[in-house]
Amino acid sequence: MDREFWHARWSNDDIGFHQDEVHPVLVDHWPALGLKAGSRILVPLAGKSLDMRWLADQGYRVTGIELSEKAAEAFFKEQNIAYTRKKRGAFDCFTSPNIEIRVGDIFDMTPAELTRFEGFYDRAALIALPDGLREDYVAHLMPGLRRGATGLLITFSYDEALMEGPPFSVTDEDVGGLYGRYAHVDLMAERRGPAKSAALRDKGLTDVRDGIYRIVRR
Ligand SMILES: C[S@@+](CC[C@H](N)C(=O)[O-])C[C@H]1O[C@@H](n2cnc3c(N)ncnc32)[C@H](O)[C@@H]1O
């Protein structure tokens, strides 16, 4: 999954991962993280997710990191939020009072930037990355975050014989193996059933499992 893959997905409007509503798991489980309003929340691989809007509406300061300029432009336009745009370091930053989307590569976030965040939200970020890159992603993000930084992680697992990702199948064991050396990991809830997306159900994903985790940086 290189950058070109994702740029092509955006330029072809092949964005079946995007949801036209706020993720119900975020609404149900975010409050249990106990993050105070005003906290800075990192949303890696953010797309144009409405979840950023919801987090900002709860009083958080939200920073999305996203490769696609098209996604960032679409987010602010569709949400009718005015922004300014400025290049800062490796990122082309689209900035509004409570939401900033930094267009660039998550792997270009420096430890000094990462340490500013009290919280993070990962929906369809970890599971968008293939095996190998997932390890690199966690090993890049987690050491940079401050102690106590708390995140909500949503994963997805299924019979890998049915489909090649993305989204990739990530199990409880995978999550423990990836995050356990950096963080306390709690499975908060799980959901089983057919995939929500018709395209995934067409591939035979009639029995999938979402895992919902609280991750607290040690
Ligand atoms: C599966 S989508 C999920 C988007 C969003 N989290 C959501 O829930 O709609 C993954 C997104 O990550 C972006 N992306 C992939 N690799 C990235 C990277 N290395 N740095 C920043 N963004 C990346 C893609 O452009 C794509 O928009």
Low-confidence stretches: none
Report the major sheet: 9 strands, mixed
Strand content: 25-35%
Domain unit count: 1
Q: What is the H/E string? A: HHEHEHEEEHEHEHEHE
Q: What class would the helix/strand composition place it in?
A: alpha/beta
Question: Could you say what the CATH architecture is?
Answer: 3-Layer(aba) Sandwich
CATH topology: Rossmann fold
Q: Please write the CATH class name.
A: Alpha Beta
Topology, number of strands:
9
How would you describe the overall organization of this protein?
There is one protein chain. With 218 residues, the protein is of the alpha/beta class. It has a single domain (3-14, 26-217), classed as Vaccinia Virus protein VP39 (Rossmann fold, 3-Layer(aba) Sandwich). Helix content is 28%, strand content 28%. The protein has helices at 3-11, 24-29, 50-57, 69-78, 111-114, 133-144, 172-179, 198-202; strands at 40-44, 61-66, 84-88, 91-95, 99-103, 119-123, 150-157, 183-193, 208-217. The longest helix is centred in the middle third of the chain and has 12 residues, at 133-144. S-adenosylmethionine (SAM) binds at residues 6, 17-18, 45-47, 49, 65-68, 71, 105-107, 123-125, 128.
Keywords:
218 residues; alpha/beta; Rossmann fold; nine-stranded mixed beta sheet; globular; binds S-adenosylmethionine
